[in-house]
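Running co-folding for magnesium ion.
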Amino acid sequence: MRFSFFLREALGSIRRNWVMTMAAVITVFISTAILGAVLVTDRNLDRGATSLKNRVTIEVFIKDEAGPEGQQALEQKIAAMPEVKSFTYISKDDALERFKERYGDRIVDNLPINPLPASFEIQVNDADQVEVVAQRFFDDPNVDNDKGTTNGVQYAQATVRKMLGTINLVEKVMWVVTGVFGVAAVMLISTTVRLSIFARRREIEIMRLVGATNWFIRWPFVLEGFMTGLVGAVLAALAVWGSNWTIFNWIKSTDLDYLSIEIYPLWLQAGTWPLGMLFTLALLGAVLGSVGSIFAMRRYLRV
Amino acid sequence: MIVFEDVTKIYDPDVVGLQNFTCHIGKGDFAFLVGASGSGKSTLIKLVLKELEPDEGRILVAGRNLNTLSRRKVPLLRRNIGCVFQDFKLLPTKTVYENVAYALEVVGEPRRSIRRKVPEILSLVGLSDKVNSLPHEISGGEQQRVSVARAFVNHPPLLLADEPTGNIDPDTAIGIMQLLVRINRTGTTVLVATHDRAMVDRMRRRVLQLDNGRLIRDERRGGYDHPVEAEPLLQEV
Ligand SMILES: Nc1ncnc2c1ncn2[C@@H]1O[C@H](COP(=O)(O)OP(=O)(O)OP(=O)(O)O)[C@@H](O)[C@H]1O
Ligand SMILES: [Mg+2]
């Protein structure tokens, strides 16, 4: 009975102010949709064997003739570099395993010996350091370079690194835009709720007079902001997820599918930020809406 | 029911609302509050509702000390006080029935008891045939009856009226006053702030007269500005 009263009052306010409410919903939509896009981008950069972030990895192949001493010498050299975040040793057997995983057993089973070299996979702290670190292995006698080349050291091309840098920058900008639109959303919702408070000032006066509790008076307005935020955010979650899905399918149908784009799940899924796209954005939208209401009430609804 | 002890209320910057005001209004009393415009009648009523805080003095209402009553408990205080104002304060988009029901709804009254109480009180104030009218479709006197119905629907122990007949012609005003007297007969304490000289003179009830925030007269059976001898017209309503 009480909740239905609040809901009825809140929906009444929304209907009365629908132009303002639409503006607020759109602002919430933009803010949360951008956040959603950041989540999708980030996830795709972080994961997947061929994802861009893996390109800050340097692979250093070890000559078969280098033996355990050569491997140890390389390991010590790598461990001493301050730019190195982490590194792993991939033995010849590991390499073969990986090869099998990717291309199937059949080719490998016909080989008389394991032709794959052992290697170190090195992650550096910063994409800018890849080049410098890689160069230190060009002349190393233990590295499996063909004569006159440096093909025993594999690392991302400069363009890829630039692209990664650009994406990072774009992501930062998107965070800022999310924030700016988030603030705008809070302000718009606050204005909308203020108009509702004004439109219902007679009701509020009577409620005070007959002894309605403060929270009883406040709830319809909290709910109004909350619902405005929620609607904007849910629409944004569906839009982001839909675009993600469309792009995913488009990429699969072209020869770009080595990019292995992933879909950020709409719903709960283990192994991700535990809420999924829908809940993450809905949570943000609801918070924006409620904060907007609370601002309006603190200014214009003394109870 | 209402106790004021040496209460002073000064508005910013230094306008006197009420000054060293002391009075005691007992349970079941019917009292008029008279005085020139700006003498502090509305101020007193707002203090009883704890819409205003006194600068000095002690106020007790329905057994509660308003000086120490927490903000959170103010709604509970107000549920024990019915209020009627000069401008009726009805919701223009709600019917007579809905206006009264609204007051019950917002204090969490169950729907079933709302359906029982509202027709009952509307019949008491003589508006059974107007339940579905909107406020602008009925007369001022009828609107004031709706507002009295709303104030009294929960049978509060105290009813405050701030110039309830201020917007109503004298004949209709008598009807409203009769209603307040009937409410008083049920044991409810009634305090009426008014400018209506003729009404006060006829009723011969207790009169508290204010002048510039001070109590200058408190008479048990007074007139608007002097004790009256005339036989009261409304004695037997
Ligand atoms: N909110 C306020 N701020 C400042 N002064 C106020 C305020 N409310 C009332 N006053 C002043 O306090 C004094 C008493 O006002 P109050 O409203 O109590 O008078 P009243 O007796 O109800 O008058 P009326 O018969 O015209 O309704 C007046 O001088 C008025 O101007
Ligand atoms: Mg007044």
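Result summary
Residues 202 and 208 of chain A are 10 Å apart (CA to CA).
The interface with chain B takes residues 1-2, 5, 202-203, 205-214, 216-217 of chain A (CB under 8 Å).
Job closed.
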